[in-house]
Amino acid sequence: MRRSDSHIWRKIKSGLASAIAFISAVLVITPLGLVFFHLVVNGASSVSWDFFTKLPAPVGAIGGGMANAIVGSLELLALAGAIGIPIGVLGGVYLAEYGSARINSVLRFLADVLNGVPSITWGVVVYGLVVLRVKGFSAYAGGLALGLIMIPLILRTTEEVVLLVPNGYREAALALGVSRWKTIVHIVMKTASKGIITGILLALARVGGETAPLLFTAFGNRFWNHSLNQPIAALPLQVFTYAISPYDDWHRQAWAGALVLVTGIFCVNVLVRILTRGRASSVV
Amino acid sequence: MYRSGLPLLINVLSFMAVAASIAVGERSVQARMASPSRFGDKAFEWLTLAMALVVVVLITLIGWQLWIGSSVAIKKFGFHFLVTSTWDPVAEQFGALPFIYGTLVSSLIALLIAVPLSIATAAYLTELAPLWLRQPLVSLIEMLAAIPSVILGLWGIFVMIPWLRDYPFPFLKRVFGWTPFFSGPIYGPSMLAGGIIIAVMILPIITSVSREILRSVPDLQREAAYGLGATRWEATRIAVLSYAKKGLFGAVILGLGRALGETMAVTMVIGNTPQIAASLFKPGYTLASVLANEFTEATTDMYLQALFEIGLVLFGITILVNLLAQLLLRTITTASTTRAVQ
Questions:
Q1: Which CATH number is associated with domain A49-283?
Q2: Among A78, A96, B45, B266, which is disulfide-ready with A162 (CB 3.0 to 4.6 Å)?
């Protein structure tokens, strides 16, 4: 009798624990829903043709857009990619194809630690390395800061997907007399290309939303950037400047900019999901 | 005769051609094997090694740049930099204590909120949730992780702070107003708001790392618990959570590392006032936010030096925390893989 009572009590406790865990999960994803809801409510009405085609209006004037910031962000991503992609991908290939267990564990460890370095730190470092030396903020400095952040991210994902390529592929190519580096480039990396691209896209999406490393490298610009030696506008930077400004019209535009930025990032994430769905079936 | 001879001739010729090509092919393979012209191989290996070593270069580069950027300030202020709380750029007196305090307190608040929620969610995702619900929830959490800090900050300024000011803060004041932590006037931008926004930022990472840890717990553990008649919760608590304790601790420390360095969202809601106050309703300031706000305004060399030193302190703290997290997580994964092999 008492036994079955305690059994019921244990069942109830188990159910309660499940309910609490469920509520926790709901609480974790609530901010996502709320942020989305408010982005759409506050931002959608301000996303207009002007927003994509016009420069910011002069201080105090109503209207204008963020065309320069959108283009600026793309330019910065191109610069960042030019630095981060080759270094990250080739470094990842080294870990997967050549490195001994000991070297690998050290490099992997350092890459993971680098991933934990606050993004503002990269801004400070690039400020010291570049901006102080050439005495000026520039698109190059901003691109460099973002590119350096990308390196450990891409390195780790590349390593992971290259390791997934079955050894038979390498053996088959080597047995045909293909040299090792050609095997790696034409067979192994080609087989893993979807995964490598996925990693690159995720890294781009991640740095595309970064603001802190750009504050004192790219600096921002209210006009078009005509030379990469000059300060350049970026979408997250513009959102920040407008959000902390005292003007209502700028707040409205900050919401619009945020909506555009998040939409861009989520499109990349959806693309990645489509790519990885293909990979899961092809590699296994 | 002549007509039947032609195909024969062609046959013979083609046979000879094939034989010759095989011979040539074989010789070329042999030639390649014999003379190891492996320049391409060596070059590629060295190239990739150089790229991999960039990771080492970067860590040293950060440390070196922050160090030389702040060397004069380090000499001038010494250890006092860490324990004094005057921040006066005009008089060139710099102490980082309010920022260190703000960073630690806001991260602590964030951990208090995020850790129970994330670990409970991770347990739900791996042990308790119905199978069909797991993948959608994981995808949603990944999406939360993809939201840039600045956008969360924007939401924090215009949605979260007004709401906190109107409902939860007055409630906290009514109930806990007798403690120093929830006393005093309510402004809105505050240490508590900063901690809450950091909690939102680190929820996804703690959840996903904890989930990986729980997934690596061998099924034997669960089977043993169920075999003894444990309920689902008992199996989760006794066989899974306690088994994964060390790894979960690693996940929390990793989250702490992210919390300490969180910049944009905090800067937008914490109020940016360098003070040490017991009340969490009062505004604060963090190491990362003072960098974000004041770096471009640093007019004198000493001011810039002091900011570089703030960067060095922040880098030092996060590097130590991250090292600890990686060590904890590493030992866990190796332990669980050896067990899986058994």
A1: 1.10.3720.10
A2: A96
